[in-house]
Design brief:
Helix content is about 55%, strand content about 10%. It is mostly helical. It has a three-stranded parallel sheet with strand order 2-1-3. α4 packs across α5. The two termini are about 30 Å apart.
Length: about 140
């Protein structure tokens, strides 16, 4: 998306990378057991969210979401903090985002699970991202 859309658009309108703050927004889940959390938490929550958007839009295709039957785990950023740090560093090398914004809790995920996830992000993922980043990632204040 960065190479195909954002960068050419910046160039077309005379924008410079230096003055453009690129914010990436993702659904991200840090866990010690990605397969378990995908099946138990994220897949059901993502399916619920997709169904609701499709209801509001009228049809699946109109909402721009996949059906629950075609949704795949590989398309979701759910991994261990170490795996997420690696995947995000690879993504940032291809599309140099300045800020990462994520949904910490999608519908259907309970408060306790969401808070445990946020603690893993703060204690384990953010330090790893800061170590690997060419321009260190600073937590929002």
């Amino acid at each position: 998306l960065w190479q195909e859309l954002v960068l050419p658009t910046l160039e077309r309108y005379g924008g410079a990378r230096e003055g453009f703050r690129f914010v990436a927004c993702v659904q991200l889940w840090a866990t010690e057991d990605p397969e378990r959390d995908w099946e138990r938490l994220l897949r059901p929550a993502a399916e619920y969210q997709a169904r609701r958007y499709a209801e509001w839009a009228g049809r699946w295709g109109d909402a721009g979401y996949q059906t629950p039957e075609t949704m795949r785990r590989e398309q979701v950023l759910i991994d261990t903090p170490e795996g997420l740090a690696r995947r995000l560093a690879e993504t940032r090398a291809r599309a140099p985002w300045d800020e990462l914004v994520f949904w910490y809790r999608i519908p259907g995920i309970g408060h306790d699970e969401a808070m445990a996830h946020l603690e893993r992000v703060a204690e384990h993922l953010v330090p790893l991202l800061s170590e690997r980043a060419p321009n260190p990632v600073e937590p929002a204040r």
